[in-house]
Design goal:
Elements: E1 3-7, H1 11-23, E2 27-31, H2 34-44, E3 48-52, H3 60-70, E4 75-80, H4 85-94, E5 98-101, H5 106-163, H6 171-186, H7 196-208, H8 218-221, H9 229-235, H10 238-246, H11 253-260, H12 282-296, H13 308-317, H14 325-349
Parallel strand pairs: 1-2, 1-3, 3-4, 4-5
The chain binds fe (ii) ion (FE2) (2 copies).
């Protein structure tokens, strides 16, 4: 919004100008003397100043000089009842854009003075807006770069985490792969409104879902036997730890929520909060199925991997209890399609 400062020691002039500009919708500041005017300029950086020349203490020319030193883009129009040629020349030399003599009519102000400066003023305003828009996009780019760097660091951290544990090696990549397959299958359901961003977010969340395990001691993660209740409680901290680690990532609040909820169950018997049904985000439900399938089909310190068909039976058995029904169905559908394709290939090759 255009900001205007009116500086005059005559209250009638100040009030008349203020009323005129407020009606036009401008932001108006007023000062009755030079030093108040300079304070207001410093604080609000007005676009245009109406400056009386003859004022007690600090006169208009001195105020003009100070304003020009502070900011050369501020337009100053000198106002006076006693304008000698010398004073007018001096004001012009210092940088005043125009000069008006008292008394003047508001009609003159509108059609002569404002008409003259408005083109310059709106040009300045446009540049100011362009500058702000540029600055915002620079900040957004920077923010994006910082986030991407942070994401890369997190990926390296996830890889480092998995390499210290031979059993979970490649776990997050496989979870990412299964999650993507499930999401592509679910995408055919228009009610779920899944767009490309959904898939991109799911990719990042799958890769980082267990990042919080960095906070779990190695001897618990790699313990060959059954975990004690206390040790299992340590493991159960990892979704909250993931959320804490990822908190500095800008603009990924939803993703943090997905990761935080990847061990919740539909029946409310999961952790960390025991959320159920609709309170669990869809992507967390997808990761839960992908995660369980990979856990069952990989060797773990305390048990051997089970065959894929048995793992699928387990998912089916726990449909609508531990896992979301439509997510399990999507995963089973993928398997059926894959088997059908394999059969067709056998038929083609015989
Ligand atoms: Fe996990
Ligand atoms: Fe996991």
């Amino acid at each position: 919004m255009l900001k205007i400062l009116v500086v005059d020691d005559e209250p009638e002039i100040v009030n008349a100008l203020k009323g005129f500009f407020v009606k036009k919708g401008y932001e108006v500041y007023v000062a009755g003397d030079g030093s108040t005017a300079l304070d207001l300029v410093k604080k609000h950086r007005p676009h245009l100043v109406f400056l009386d020349i003859r004022m007690p203490k600090v006169d208009g020319l001195k105020v003009l000089r100070n304003i020009r030193q502070m900011d050369t883009s501020i337009k100053v129009i000198m106002v006076t009842a006693f304008g000698t040629q010398e004073v007018i020349k001096e004001a012009g030399r210092i940088g005043a854009v125009d000069f008006i003599c008292k008394p003047f009519t508001l009609n003159y102000l509108e059609h002569d003075v404002m008409a003259k400066v408005s083109v310059q003023l709106f040009d300045d305003l446009r540049q100011e807006m362009d500058g702000k828009v540029k600055l915002i996009s620079q900040l957004e780019n920077l923010n994006g770069r910082v986030s991407r760097n942070f994401y890369q660091t997190m990926l390296s951290l996830a890889a480092a985490l998995e390499s210290r544990d031979r059993y979970t090696h490649g776990h997050s990549e496989r979870v990412d792969h299964y999650s993507k397959l499930i999401a592509q299958e679910l995408k055919t359901n228009p009610k779920l409104k899944m767009d490309n961003k959904f898939l991109e977010d799911l990719h990042m969340e799958s890769r980082l879902h267990d990042i919080g395990k960095i906070a779990v001691p190695d001897e618990i993660l790699n313990k060959p036997g059954k975990l004690t209740a206390k040790e299992f409680n340590e493991i159960k901290r990892h979704p909250s730890e993931s959320a804490r680690i990822l908190a500095p990532l800008e603009g990924v609040k939803d993703s943090i929520d997905v990761i935080y909820n990847h061990h919740e169950r539909i029946d409310g018997r999961g952790y960390p909060e025991g959320r159920s049904g609709k309170d669990i985000p869809l992507r967390a439900k997808i990761i839960a199925v992908a995660d369980a399938f990979d856990a069952m089909t990989s060797d773990r310190p305390y048990r051997r991997a089970i065959p894929e068909n048995l793992a699928l039976n387990e998912l089916e058995k726990n449909r609508d209890r531990q896992f979301d029904g439509k997510v399990v169905n999507a995963f089973l559908n993928i398997r059926k399609k894959k088997e059908k394709l394999a059969k067709e290939e056998v038929l083609l090759n015989t």
